[in-house]
Amino acid sequence: MINKRDLIELKKRGIKFAILSDFGWNLNLTPNEVLRFISDPEKFYADRCGMSLRDYRTWKEFARNPQCTGTTKKGERCNNGAHPFDPWNPQIVIKGIDDRCLLHKEKVSTK
């Protein structure tokens, strides 16, 4: 298993540590971050995004398929693209607001 001392030595020799996320983010890592990433990649990403693990997982699931969860007049799921949604900007996905297209977003009460 890799350890911090080895990572620090590699860094001293000019090795840079970076990861490419599922969403195309290129993140440079310190030796400590490498160890945290290896230990729990999802927790690492959540922490790096300033989100709870639960919120990160919700966002990640939605980011893979950002479709409206509203219901059509026929009672079927809308499936239009959620708008606006930026997969480069992790955010807490508020059900009923962020997961809706423009048509269904307008129908959500914000009382």
First-last Cα distance:
53 Å
The string of secondary-structure elements, in order, is HEEHHHH
Radius of gyration: 19 Å
Helix content: 25-40%
**Broad shape:** elongated
Please report the total strand number as a whole number: 2
Give unreliable regions as ranges. Answer: none
Total number of domains: 2
| Individual helix count | 5
Q: Which class of secondary structure composition applies to the elements?
A: mainly alpha
Mean pLDDT: 84
Strand order across the largest sheet:
1-2
Q: What is the percentage of strand-forming residues?
A: 5-15%
Q: Would you summarize the structure shown here?
A:
By secondary structure, this protein is mainly α. It is 39% helix and 7% strand.
Explain the layout of strands and helices:
Layout: H1 4-12, E1 17-20, E2 26-29, H2 31-39, H3 41-49, H4 53-64, H5 102-105
Antiparallel strand pairs: 1-2
Helix pairs in contact: 1-2, 2-3, 3-4
Task: Describe the model.
The chain is built from five helices and two strands. It has about 110 residues and is mainly alpha-helical. It folds into two domains: about 1-40, no CATH class; about 40-110, no CATH class. It has a two-stranded antiparallel ribbon. Helix 2 (about 30-40) crosses helix 3 and helix 3 (about 40-50) crosses helix 4. The chain is elongated and about 60 Å long. The model has no long low-confidence stretch (mean pLDDT about 85).
